[in-house]
Write a structure and sequence with these properties.
heterodimer, A: mainly alpha, MetI-like fold, 0% strand, B: alpha+beta, Rossmann fold, OB fold (Dihydrolipoamide Acetyltransferase, E2P), 5-stranded antiparallel β-sheet, globular
């Protein structure tokens, strides 16, 4: 059992899903309330990681992070090393990879908040942003929890993007899923089984918590 | 066929001296076109509402809610001007359009829209976000007291009754001291005692906060119970404006009769109470005609309104005997008018004019015509009493 890879993965998932709360809420807010006619293009772009092969996504991220891209050069001048094949690079790749898993539940729950509440809030002197903070966010608790948990679980199990962007550096970029792959490659089935089982259990527990939490919210009252 | 009844400013309750005398006037002149299932709907209105109750009365689809939405800033008119207390909220010429949340206009919608995750007290305090915590607390507590919902302050909307929710919604809008108040059928779901209690509380508040209250209803009785002033809206246009009994009675608009359900409406004074029999006697207008009506909580000398449906009245050409009906008023037929198969007779009973609906056969059988002496028969329980 490779505990180093395990904790690295958990750390990556925690960092990514936390950052996605901060990044995903403004994006979901915009997607919910914007009346821009080309909004659907942004919606499609956000959903891309769901359908793209992770290797394709990983390839583009690798190019974007590499020392030939403006972002890669800027990061290199700042820190002295490239983003590719580092933990930070892995975080950026995972952010993009798991973005729809946070944004979509967020946007769905924002959109489900009764419009009459927003109108009432406006009539009571609250700006749209204040209304969002005091009415929409509290009533979207279930969506926020779902988005956080889904992006956490999704990041836990990612493989293709990590392999492309992070490579396979023990302690830096070697996550559980890559560890399982390595062990199978070296015919170390019992160890692979242990690691795979652990990932399976964690993912199942996280998802059970999501569905259990949503169910409980439904049971408590007519409001969510 | 717009019937304009002049705004009678003398009818407005005089301005009361209070700790915070706020007085404002609402002026609306807007047009808005929008598609609806029957083609295009045209809202085109121009009116002024002074402090006090102004009833917006009209059937469904008359444009009442759209009009309120425009005033609240929740939807934009095509052009025109909306001003409150002299300040422009919307002016298409000056390209001015104040955002809804900066308008300081209270709006209680029929669905109330209480915030489900907040307690009653938090709901009421919601609009006071610019105040300090102590002030916010004091003001919301006071408003909870005014609306008699202090004991519910820690409950969520889902845990209180419909009438209590209505009170919370009203308190939440009023506590912010809006410059005008828009009420879109806020009492529609209430039973009558609850309704009149709530109206009393609203009136009390309005005596100290002299702001215009636009009150939407399609219930004719509410018009008489509340209105200082009525605006009758039909298909996006104002067809009449004035005091309730003028708008609802004088212009014999089909919409009015249809909506109010009472073709006969009288200002009346209580002259005697018969508590043992459950009735009382009311004098109609300033004339001599009196009606025995069901007893309500009133005192001798108090003023109210009596509504009687034209179809509930009987006409007799001789003084009837042996009838259970308690009111037999002598009068003279002034005019007869035939509408389809209904004959509408206007009968003058010494200062009070009744409209009576008859069949064609009854008209011919009684040989009715202008100038004929008749008796109008009114059952006690056909008299519907409304507060002034």
């Amino acid at each position: 059992m490779n505990w180093e890879a395990f904790w690295l993965t958990v750390r990556l998932a925690a960092v990514v899903s936390t950052l996605l709360i901060a990044i995903g809420i403004p994006i979901a807010y915009w997607l919910t309330y914007s009346r821009w006619r080309w909004k659907f293009l942004v919606e499609a772009a956000v959903a891309l990681p769901i359908v793209l092969p992770p290797t394709v996504l990983g390839f583009y991220i690798l190019v974007a992070l590499g020392s030939r891209s403006p972002l890669g050069r800027w990061w290199e001048s700042l820190t002295g090393h490239t983003l590719a094949f580092t933990f930070e690079g892995l975080v950026i790749g995972s952010l993009l990879y798991s973005l729809p898993f946070a944004v979509q539940p967020f946007a769905a729950s924002f959109g489900a908040v009764d419009k009459s509440l927003l109108r009432a809030s406006a009539s009571l002197g609250h700006s749209p942003v204040q209304t969002f903070r005091r009415i929409v966010l509290p009533l979207s608790k279930a969506g926020l929890v779902t988005g956080f948990a889904l992006s956490f679980a999704h990041t836990l199990g990612e493989f293709g993007v990590v392999l492309m962007v992070g490579g396979n550096i023990p302690g830096v970029t070697r996550t559980i899923s890559i560890d399982v792959y390595d062990q199978v490659q070296t015919a170390n089935y019992s160890s692979a089984n242990q690691t795979a089982l652990l990932l399976l259990i964690i993912s199942f527990v996280v998802l059970s918590m999501v569905y259990g939490f949503n169910r409980r919210l439904w049971a408590v009252g007519p409001w969510r | 066929m717009a019937v304009k009844v002049k705004i009678a400013s003398t009818r407005q309750t005089p301005l009361q001296t209070s700790a915070q005398p706020i007085s404002s006037e609402l002026e609306v002149r807007i047009r808005k076109r929008f598609p609806n299932p029957e083609g295009t709907f045209n809202l085109n209105v121009h009116f002024r509402a002074l402090a006090g109750f102004t009833i917006l009365f009209g059937g469904s689809g008359a444009g009442k809610t759209t009009l309120l939405d425009c005033i609240a800033g929740l939807t934009d008119p095509d052009d025109g001007r909306i001003a409150v207390g002299g300040e422009d909220l919307y002016d298409s010429q000056k390209k001015r359009n104040v955002a809804a949340w900066k308008r300081r206009i209270g709006y209680v919608h029929q669905d109330l829209a209480l915030f489900p995750h907040l307690t009653a007290e938090e709901n009421v305090a919601y609009g006071l976000c610019t105040l300090g915590a102590a002030e916010r607390h004091a003001r919301s507590r006071q408003m909870l007291g005014t609306f008699r919902i202090d004991h519910l302050r820690d409950r969520r909307p889902a845990q209180i009754s419909g009438g209590e929710r209505q009170r919370v919604a009203l308190a939440r809008a009023l506590v912010t001291e809006p410059r005008a108040l828009l009420l879109d059928e806020p009492l529609a779901a209430l039973d009558r005692p609850t309704k009149s209690l709530l109206v009393g509380d609203l009136r009390k508040w309005n005596q100290h906060h002299r702001v215009p209250i636009l009150f939407v209803t399609h219930n004719g009785e509410e018009v008489f119970a509340l209105g200082d002033e009525v605006i009758l809206l039909d298909a996006g246009r104002i067809v009449a404006q004035g005091q309730p009994h003028e708008v609802m009675r004088a212009p014999r608009l089909e919409t009015v009769a249809h909506l109010s359900g009472f073709e006969n409406i009288f200002d009346a004074t209580v002259v005697a109470l018969r508590e043992d029999r459950g009735t009382m006697t009311c004098r109609l207008g300033s004339g001599a005609a009196e009606l025995e009506t069901p007893l309500i909580r009133a005192e001798v000398g108090s003023r109210l309104r009596v509504g009687v449906r034209a179809g509930d009245l009987l006409l007799a050409t001789e003084h009837p005997r042996g009838l259970s009906a308690r009111n037999i008023l002598p009068g003279t037929v002034r005019q007869l008018e035939q509408r389809d198969v209904i004959v509408s007779a206007m009968v003058d009973c010494g200062g009070a004019e009744f409209e009576v609906h008859l069949t064609l056969a009854a008209r011919d059988g009684l040989e009715l015509g202008p100038g004929k002496s008749v008796w109008v028969v009114v059952k006690t329980h056909s008299c519907h009493l409304m507060a002034v």
